[in-house]
Amino acid sequence: xxxxxxxxxxxxxxxxxxxxxxxxxxxxxxxxxxxxxxxxxxxxxxxxxxxxxxxxxxxxxxxxxxxxxxxxxxxxxxxxxxxxxxxxxxxxxxxxxxxxxxxxxxxxxxxxxxxxxxxxxxxxxxxxxxxxxxxxxxxxxxxxxxxxxxxxxxxxxxxxxxxxxxxxxxxxxxxxxxxxxxxxxxxxxxxxxxxxxxxxxxxxxxxxxxxxxxxxxxxxxxxxxxxxxxxxxxxxxxxxxxxxxxxxxxxxxxxxxxxxxxxxxxxxxxxxxxxxxxxxxxxxxxxxxxxxxxxxxxxxxxxxxxxxx
Length: 309
Description:
Order of helices and strands: EHEEEHHEHEEHEEEHEEHEHH
Low-confidence stretches: none
Helix content: 25-40%
Number of strands: 13
Shape: globular
């Protein structure tokens, strides 16, 4: 049994990670300030003897004794991280500093949940880990993109300067049950609009692409990364299947038997035109690749949203 800290543990990804860690027989401390996370996501764990919830903001110091730290704390959807961009940047940077300091004090292995957004609007497609990105440092998405890039910098500086045992993963678009129905992300937006037979909002002409990874696959990759020795990353964790927004919308309309129509809106500033991971490093180092295709993952996610709407 390991004692494991999960920051952002009441969020979409964090709650699924807590489930996995409890299932593996660990003692889990879940930390979340509940800005975008929800107790509903972890309610089924609250009575578990080896699960503890602490309401705390990672921009403040935290003192606990743990063996491993998963640092997931940060708003991840544009609506939420642009609501208070300074707070978003502080969460990425000060949160990383506080968790790295904690890991250094207690000699814990620490994993940073970074993002494909460190690649910005990429000039190379698909994106390998060696690509350094094309990010606007002063745009409306910069609080998140540059905050995550700075967090990666801090992780590797702590690794080089203090020999800290770090892991860095870059998460590509992930979806599944427990997504917030109003977080503004494309999968949840389209599903909610389709189930309500409302117009489905397409930004731009709908030809921009994304790669969608089902949450169970993502958690498996994250877990393997934390428990693989002698590999710091960064490593891409995502599904290399690539779909346009129009393809996604039409698939969701088909799976929900919706009467929704497509409506077009202007493309938001700095919205990437393409996004697809190269996952050869994850295959080689972690023996990982996604196993759940888009249609199966969407069916599971639609079933969840049907229950909560």
